[in-house]
């Protein structure tokens, strides 16, 4: 194992060096699920779990690279809801994240360009991504 990949075997709680606490019966099912998932090593998160955590604005620094790996194999993977739902949540990550991670941004743009016809027939791309794709 490459030392730079050790982060993959840690949970979000470990990576962020913070405790999200334990869910209670009073918490919604969504909160209970998210609080359980932040304790799981990120490499073990499924596409649907990544979709959920990214959609709930959990730390994209660790989650987006893993989501992009899945999307490279199946850009329109169904991650629990509909074809392309993981991609849609990745595309909804704030623009500031992509500005801070130009390598990931380029990776995503390249993938979207290669699969643009397929993507555009399935998803209504956010304006930010339509512009980024056009500029690339």
TrEMBL record:
This is Uncharacterized protein. The lineage of its organism: Bacteria, Pseudomonadati, Bacteroidota, Chitinophagia, Chitinophagales. CDD domains: CdiI_EC536-like (cd20691). It holds the Pfam family CdiI_3.
């Amino acid at each position: 194992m490459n030392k730079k990949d050790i982060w993959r075997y840690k949970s979000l709680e470990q990576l962020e060096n913070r405790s999200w606490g334990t869910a209670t019966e009073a918490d919604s099912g969504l909160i209970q699920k998210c609080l359980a998932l932040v304790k799981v090593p990120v490499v073990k998160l499924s596409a649907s779990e990544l979709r959920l955590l990214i959609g709930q604005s959990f730390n994209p620094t660790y989650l987006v690279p893993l989501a992009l790996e899945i999307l490279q194999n199946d850009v329109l993977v169904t991650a629990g809801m509909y074809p392309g739902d993981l991609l849609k949540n990745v595309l909804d990550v704030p623009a500031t994240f992509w500005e801070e991670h130009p390598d990931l941004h380029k990776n995503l743009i390249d993938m979207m360009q290669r699969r643009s016809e397929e993507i555009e027939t399935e998803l209504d791309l956010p304006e930010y991504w339509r512009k980024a794709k056009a500029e690339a």
